[in-house]
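Design job #97: recover the sequence.
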């Protein structure tokens, strides 16, 4: 605490990201992609005329949004891009969820939502997951005044995804406020809700280039929704930073979107490795929640999460352990290369005997 901080800043509880170690470790703690970005990215960067950096980027990111719109079969007016999808989530909280009523959210989900709720003074109405660790869409869309609904599909850190039909059923029940579906992990086996945008003007879908497109270091995210929602995001963006997406990020994002073959190959590889890892963990006695994401949430009936986390850390393998009551026995393990997962499984084999 400092006397110079405003009361609002004194009250903040900032998000704590997974550790970014400086030494060499097998890094399975922040859901990065183990494969490189599309080859076109390095080529485009090599050919980039550095003199262009004198100029401000296009504040509307038109070229990137055109490529995004073509890739997802929506209009440019239905697209928005930002400095990582975290930034877009922050804009969305300010644009749509500050109505003085509670925001419906799963009790276990992406831990940045409570951070933004605190930052923007939004009250959360938290709904427990069901017995299968799935987001309870019925509870989330119950009656009563609300400022909106937000959830991740697939959810984090559980990995479960609802079908498009289930999400559409929720949209039929919640029509007065924005429903934000965070699709950070959708490309690893779940269905995107983008196809519903034309029919539900209150649906906002967010996504990121950080995971399935191997560009976490670039900081690029997107949102898709009706033009009136996009206008709402733009109003906040242009009251905060006119140029959140720099020229290089736009260029790289376009290259990544263009290479569908590379994108598909990487995500299929991750999915195959995920399923193989799941089987082998189950052989070791682990309970593994079914996942449509590039991570798995797992626990062992005989070994504590914290203990396994520490044992892996000693062997230079970094996974994520959450210190909350519900999750303290679990480990969240990002899907790395096959070799990395083999090292993980070998280490767990030693730790669990
Ligand atoms: C990783 C993640 C994000 C943030 O992605 P960035 O684009 O890197 O900011 C958003 N939502 C969820 C659920 C995530 O796991």
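Job complete. Output follows.
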């Amino acid at each position: 605490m400092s006397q110079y901080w405003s009361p609002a800043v004194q009250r903040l509880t900032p998000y704590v990201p997974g550790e970014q170690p400086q030494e060499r470790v097998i890094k399975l703690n922040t859901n990065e992609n183990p494969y490189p970005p599309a080859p076109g990215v390095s080529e485009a960067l090599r050919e980039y005329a550095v003199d262009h950096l004198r100029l401000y980027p296009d504040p509307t990111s038109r070229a990137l949004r055109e490529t995004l719109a073509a890739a997802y079969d929506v209009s440019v007016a239905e697209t928005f891009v930002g400095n990582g999808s975290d930034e877009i989530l922050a804009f969305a909280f300010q644009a749509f969820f500050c109505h003085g009523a509670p925001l419906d959210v799963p009790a276990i989900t992406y831990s940045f939502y409570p951070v933004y709720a605190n930052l923007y003074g939004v009250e959360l109405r938290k709904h427990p997951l069901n017995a299968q660790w799935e987001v309870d869409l019925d509870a989330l869309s119950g009656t009563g005044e609300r400022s909106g609904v937000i959830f991740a599909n697939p959810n984090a850190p559980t990995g479960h995804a609802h079908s498009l039909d289930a999400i559409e059923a929720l949209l039929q029940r919640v029509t007065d406020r924005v429903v934000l579906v965070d699709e950070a992990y959708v490309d690893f086996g779940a269905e995107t809700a983008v196809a519903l945008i034309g029919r539900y003007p209150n649906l906002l879908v967010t996504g990121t280039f950080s995971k399935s497109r191997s560009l976490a270091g670039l900081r690029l995210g997107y949102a898709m929704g009706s033009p009136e929602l996009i206008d709402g995001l733009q109003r906040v963006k242009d009251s905060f930073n006119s140029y959140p997406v720099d020229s290089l990020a736009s260029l790289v994002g376009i290259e990544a979107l263009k290479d569908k073959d590379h994108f598909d190959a990487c995500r299929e590889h991750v999915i195959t490795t995920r399923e193989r890892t799941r089987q082998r963990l189950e052989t070791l006695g682990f309970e593994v929640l079914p996942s449509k994401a590039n991570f798995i949430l797992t626990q062992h009936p005989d070994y504590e999460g914290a203990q396994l986390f520490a044992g892996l850390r000693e062997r230079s393998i970094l996974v994520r352990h959450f210190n909350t009551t519900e999750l303290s026995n679990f480990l969240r393990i990002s899907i790395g290369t096959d070799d990395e997962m083999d090292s993980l499984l070998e280490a767990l084999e030693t730790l669990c005997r």
